């Protein structure tokens, strides 16, 4: 996983609530067996419309998605995170994220930032008025900055530490392999197994 | 202080707890399917890691599988690659798999319970949000992303942040013709698609106690549609009766030991929930969705709402967008909404009880002209049972199509899809834009409402059929 310390970029305002992961990346894209190449599937249905914000010339190269509430609801597909990253987004700001999506994003180094809806509205207004306006998401200071906006955000210390260092969860867990083995030794006999233990 | 059911199951699975770190939780059962696993196996391969516990892992093919001509090669080359990738990975890593054509194949959330693999007090995960289904057994079961799939394959554990608990207490009796599906749709409309966020929901109360396991699974299945981490129901005699004798259920002394443990799982009298919701079962009526998220629902007897009815500006915009997408006029009685297709199936309502309910209504009647009805059993076992009971004949005689098991039109990854603009009454769990096919419009309903709707060609409940004129129509 790439480290995330601080990122500054132009924004895309997505004024919609309840953007589910089926909208972020439709099911037919899920047949791919890789983690890359999902950028063209991102918001595929909406991108058919020339006026859709992502299609606007002034939004090309933007890397901060400022989304409406309940972003990422529905299916657990991590492909939604990969699609956003493949497209070039480094961070997503919303007043509320669905849990699984948020977990997936943080595991992949896509920083999801929760800000109050009023702040999201101000960021929308700012970038709509001036598409070249930049937004900085500073993980070290746990702060979002833009012209006229300075807003702190919360993020679990442990998650922040993993992101700042680009650490892979599996290796961290495997450091505690002995604890896992001890736990397994006490697992009751009546708990089912899918097949006889090897 | 007393603990809730969810807290007990959590506590029983903590492998490691350290200040400032998430708890490391042991996972008892890991279910896999072809869509969310290929990148996880790739990760293992790259790091040179094995699957830690192949005996706690099982795979089935469901999302991409065709429901017709299953003995022929899969027509869609991309679907074919994905299924073959799962088969290859399962063989390479030693994971048990039930492929297309196997008698245990089916939708992953139907297969786990019917094999008796899903049991009370377990932790169950799958790279699929509807893993919440398994909570019906008093298991802590939740959907995970592909990175977490890889994590569980490698370590059989997950680092997890704590959740909050919400009690959803449903007292009373569901009126005639009102089902578990109507109840959960009403709950989601009440608390909203984000209402359960961060919570494990525990459904309880007399109305829940009286439900069958199938109905309980329907309810827990849709917990995720309220944004919840998981949904649970305390195990009781109904749970034990369902499990007894299943292939992977404990036997003999093990069974007695298991039941003794399972009985300790119910929440303590003095357990405190972080939030509570009360529902009066007696007041419920058949419920349908009119919009493009599962929280946009209303009683079947209501009208399509006006966006102005919503005080919250975001909800108002969402309603406007939804009506536009759904091609609905505010104020139209929902009962006047005509459909082109009806889908009975999915991990929400594709079990034998659901098929029986739909068949009972279709028996001796005819699907309305111009309406296409698809009946897709949740698993091969469900299909076999239905055939044994003659339900397949009832469906085909009524003019419905009887298909092979799989996810099918629940998400349209296989050829079963709606055409743009087509409207469908579906027993599945998601009415998102394009979920059942690009431009398709979905109304979530119970199997009973689905069957009545197929007969009348418009959203309807079985009660509407008692009107002889309506049946003629
Ligand atoms: S039936 Fe539908 S909801 Fe259930 S696992 Fe399949 S696609 Fe997902």
UniProtKB/TrEMBL annotation, chain A:
EC number: 4.2.1.33
Keyword set includes Amino-acid biosynthesis: yes
One Pfam family named in its UniProt record: Aconitase_C
UniProt keyword Lyase, yes or no: yes
NCBIfam families membership: leuD, PRK01641.1
Subunit details: Heterodimer of LeuC and LeuD.
Protein name as catalogued: 3-isopropylmalate dehydratase small subunit
Native source species: Kitasatospora paracochleata
Lineage of the species this protein comes from: Bacteria, Bacillati, Actinomycetota, Actinomycetes, Kitasatosporales
Gene that produces this protein: leuD
UniProtKB/TrEMBL annotation, chain B:
Swiss-Prot/TrEMBL catalytic activity: (2R,3S)-3-isopropylmalate = (2S)-2-isopropylmalate
Secretion signal, residue range per the UniProt entry: none
Cofactor note: Binds 1 [4Fe-4S] cluster per subunit.
Entry keywords, A to Z: 4Fe-4S, Amino-acid biosynthesis, Branched-chain amino acid biosynthesis, Iron, Iron-sulfur, Leucine biosynthesis, Lyase, Metal-binding
EC number from the UniProt entry: 4.2.1.33
Enzyme class: lyase
Keyword Iron among UniProt keywords: yes
Xref: InterPro entries: 3-IsopropMal_deHydase_lsu, Acnase/IPM_dHydase_lsu_aba_1/3, Acoase/IPM_deHydtase_lsu_aba, Aconitase_4Fe-4S_BS, Aconitase_4Fe-4S_dom, IPM_dehydratase_rel_enz, IPMI_cat
Pathway listed: Amino-acid biosynthesis; L-leucine biosynthesis; L-leucine from 3-methyl-2-oxobutanoate: step 2/4
All residue ranges annotated as the Aconitase/3-isopropylmalate dehydratase large subunit alpha/beta/alpha domain in the record: 7-457
A UniProt-annotated Pfam family: Aconitase
Protein's job: Catalyzes the isomerization between 2-isopropylmalate and 3-isopropylmalate, via the formation of 2-isopropylmaleate.
Assembly and interaction partners: Heterodimer of LeuC and LeuD.
Record family assignment: Belongs to the aconitase/IPM isomerase family. LeuC type 1 subfamily.
NCBIfam families registered for this protein in UniProt: leuC (TIGR00170), PRK05478.1 (NF004016), PRK12466.1 (NF009116)
Protein name, as recorded: 3-isopropylmalate dehydratase large subunit
């Amino acid at each position: 996983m790439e480290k995330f310390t601080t990122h500054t970029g132009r924004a895309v305002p997505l004024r919609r609530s309840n953007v589910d992961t089926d909208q972020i990346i439709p099911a037919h894209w899920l047949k791919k067996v890789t983690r890359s190449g999902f950028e063209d599937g991102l918001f595929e249905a909406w991108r058919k419309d020339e006026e859709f914000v992502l299609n606007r010339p002034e939004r090309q190269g933007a890397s901060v998605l400022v989304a409406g509430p309940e972003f990422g609801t529905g299916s657990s597909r991590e492909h939604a995170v990969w699609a956003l990253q493949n497209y070039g987004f480094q961070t997503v700001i919303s007043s509320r994220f669905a849990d699984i999506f948020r977990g997936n994003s943080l595991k992949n180094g896509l920083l999801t930032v929760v800000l109050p809806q009023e702040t999201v509205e101000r960021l929308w207004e700012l970038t709509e008025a001036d598409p070249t306006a930049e937004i900085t998401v500073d993980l070290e200071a746990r702060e979002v900055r833009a012209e006229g906006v300075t807003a702190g955000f919360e993020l679990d210390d442990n998650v922040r530490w993993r992101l700042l260092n680009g650490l892979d969860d599996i290796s961290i867990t495997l450091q505690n392999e002995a604890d896992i083995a001890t736990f397994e030794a006490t697992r009751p006999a009546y708990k089912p197994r899918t097949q006889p233990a090897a | 202080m007393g603990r809730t059911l969810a807290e007990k199951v959590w506590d029983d699975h903590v492998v490691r707890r350290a200040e400032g770190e998430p708890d490391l939780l042991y996972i008892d059962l890991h279910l896999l399917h072809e869509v969310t696993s290929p990148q996880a196996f790739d990760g293992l391969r790259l790091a040179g890691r094995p699957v830690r516990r192949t005996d706690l892992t099982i795979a089935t093919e469901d999302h991409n599988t065709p429901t017709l001509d299953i003995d022929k090669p899969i027509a869609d080359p991309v679907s074919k690659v994905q299924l073959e990738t799962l088969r290859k990975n399962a063989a390479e890593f030693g994971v048990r798999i039930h492929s297309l054509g196997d008698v245990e194949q089916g939708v992953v959330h139907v297969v786990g319970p019917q094999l008796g693999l899903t049991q009370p007090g377990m932790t169950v995960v799958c790279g699929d949000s509807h893993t919440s289904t398994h909570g019906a057994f008093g298991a802590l079961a939740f959907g995970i992303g592909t990175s977490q799939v890889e994590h569980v394959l490698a370590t059989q554990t997950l680092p997890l942040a704590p959740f909050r608990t919400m009690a959803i207490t449903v007292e009373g009796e569901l009126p005639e013709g009102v089902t578990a599906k109507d109840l959960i749709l009403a709950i989601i409309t009440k608390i909203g698609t984000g209402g359960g966020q961060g919570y494990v929901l525990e459904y309880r109360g007399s109305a829940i106690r009286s439900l069958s396991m199938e109905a309980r699974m329907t309810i827990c299945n849709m917990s995720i549609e309220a944004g919840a981490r998981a949904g649970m129901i305390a195990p009781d005699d109904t749970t034990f009766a369902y499990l007894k004798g299943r292939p992977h259920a404990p036997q003999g002394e093990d069974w007695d030991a298991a039941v003794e443990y399972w009985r300790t799982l119910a929440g303590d009298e003095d357990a405190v929930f972080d939030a509570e919701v009360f529902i009066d079962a007696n007041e419920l009526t058949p419920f349908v969705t009119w919009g493009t998220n599962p929280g946009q629902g209303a009683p079947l007897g209501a009208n399509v709402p006006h966006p102005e009815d919503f005080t919250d500006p975001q909800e108002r915009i969402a309603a406007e967008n939804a009506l536009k997408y759904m091609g609905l006029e505010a104020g139209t009685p929902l009962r006047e909404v005509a459909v082109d297709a009806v889908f009975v199936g999915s991990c929400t309502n594709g079990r034998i009880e659901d098929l029986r309910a739909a068949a009972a209504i279709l028996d001796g009647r005819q699907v309305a002209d111009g309406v296409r009805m698809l009946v897709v059993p949740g698993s091969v076992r469900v299909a076999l049972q239905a055939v044994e009971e003659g339900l397949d004949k009832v469906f085909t005689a009524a003019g419905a199509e009887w298909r092979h098991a799989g996810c099918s039109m629940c998400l349209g990854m296989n050829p079963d899809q709606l055409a743009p603009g087509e409207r469908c009454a579906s027993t599945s769990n998601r009415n998102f834009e394009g979920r059942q096919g690009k431009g398709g419009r979905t109304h979530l309903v119970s199997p009973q409402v689905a069957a009545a709707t197929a007969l009348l060609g418009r959203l309807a409940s079985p009660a509407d059929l008692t009107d002889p004129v309506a049946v003629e129509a």
